[in-house]
Amino acid sequence: MPLDRIVLARTVLTMDPEHPRAEAVGVDTSSGTIVAVGSHEGLTAAHPDADLVDLGDAALLPGFIDSHSHPIMSGMMCREPAQWIAPYVGYPSYADVTALFERLETETPAGVGLLFNGLDRTLQAAPELTNLDLDAFFPDRPVFVLDNSGHEGYFTSALIRQLGWADGKPPADPVGARFGRHADGTSNGRCYELQAVMAVLQPLMATVLTDPLLSAAKWYRYMAENGITATTEHTFGLSLLPAITALGSLPDSPLGLSLYHMSTEPDPTAPLETSAPEAMVRKVGVKLWADGSPWTGTIATTFPYLDNDTVRGAGITPGPGGEAMMNYTRADLDELLDSFAGSGLQMAFHVNGDLGLDIVLDAYERALTRQGLLGSDHGWRVEHVGAARREQFGRAAALGVGVSMSPFQFVYWGDVLDGTLFASEIGSQWQRFADAIASGATVSFHNDGSVSPPIPLLNLQTAVTRLTGSGTLRGPEQRITLDEALKAETVSAARHLGRGDEIGSIEPGKRADFVVLSADPYTADPARLVDDVRVLGTWRDGRPLDLDAFLQQVAAIDPAQHADLPAHAAVHPHC
Q1: Mean per-residue pLDDT for 210-222?
Q2: Angle at 522 between CA 521 and CA 526, to 5 degrees
Q3: What are the backbone dihedrals phi and psi of residue 167, each rounded to the nearest 5 degrees, phi first?
Q4: What local confidence, expressed as pLDDT, does residue 315 receive?
Q5: CB–CB of 406/431 below 8 Å?
Q6: CA 144: distance to chain centroid?
Q7: What is the C-alpha to C-alpha distance for residues 503 and 413, in angstroms, rounded to an integer?
Q8: Where are the alpha helices (DSSP H) in 262-381?
Q9: Rounded-to-integer distance, Cα 465 and Cα 478, Å
Q10: Residue 173 above 80 pLDDT?
Q11: pLDDT tens digit sequence for 51-71
């Protein structure tokens, strides 16, 4: 391969344990491949005609990898024209949310709908809203507010009228979901669980999101601005493929996407057919669900929630709910795995509760044994694992199961997990980073967009310091080193995507996908990593990405080609 470009930096953090630091990287731009890694003097002397790109005092690292995300829906629900109102993106209290309500009611033309996502009743002390509550802010406007869990929504009387419900009464409750009702049977502006939420939300999305592909592209850009060059679509369905193909085919598209096909689709193990480059769009796994969300009381645990006003105000029964919180019986899990395990694709289970993880690991062990996969590099995963116990990580490691962890659960909810939602011996240990690393399991980090902002540097800071968003130290024994945290955002995450031989480290033969940081993270105060180290840019295939050009390329696509994207994406759960 011809080396035609040399990238220089004050330091190159390669994530290659044999050669952890360098000064220069030589690239073949025709293939987008790394050819050589070494010193400034050595590479420039050996390749005097190569194009030199000097990054000055910056640090060059392999591009960060978010190992579990939902970029299509995240863009539509969290980028303009939708409004993201989560507590950690500028709306820490319900008063902040209502101030935005008042401003937008004044600024938005009459009759134009508004879509809000991210109301968090636990963190913002927000009430469970009704149509009458929202009508006080939006008397004549169709408005929908989605709870941060994604399991509940609230809407105005104007939207009820637009839906055309006879006498203002909702239709019959869908299976597994329900509409809220006043005593007289009319809607109270509430809906619960996916099918009811989508029945209300989908028609409004179709009118508010005038260019849904551009909305999705804005999330791609957001991830790239935080240094991410590869991620997943963890609730992939074939209806999303046209949008994913369109975005992945553009010359300045910033994200390589690995797809996990939902187990609820008719044939999730079927081969993927797409015209996008394989480096940009690739199907790697099947997504399954074991339990629910810790913020809604639907995780399968061996321990209860605490009984207090915060817990009951969030609509949570202290419990524990045990196996009743599982989405499937153990027999169901065995049947599903029997159907998919021989496909060669990864299995990836959403599971938060410790009891849920016991059941998933039991099912995995049976299926791996039946398929003769024990001891192989099968790539099966568990996702989130907030309440996992120490010995469970060891069991995952013994089975060869990767562990994809959620630092955001600790940084944003750590203060309520520890002593409010759960007893301190459980809440302070939420996301046991040190136990997971010590077990020998392969550990990656993710942000589960749009559940949290995709900020790898904050994940690193959190895992190294165990400081919550308030700056409080909780569970210090679960701190890990910066080396270990960086592996979770690079080489280990690449392995979890089944792409360890292509990305995740700066080594000859791998793709030249980089993140440029303003400073060497090893020189920063770990508690100030996100303040003292900035992402200066991302590179793909050996060239810096132009994110403005990417959005221009998307804007040039006729929005009518993807007008049905909200309807397709809205039926994909977010977890």
Answers
A1: 97
A2: 75
A3: 60, 20
A4: 79
A5: yes
A6: 23
A7: 32
A8: 309-313, 330-340, 354-370
A9: 9
A10: yes
A11: 999 999 999 999 999 999 999
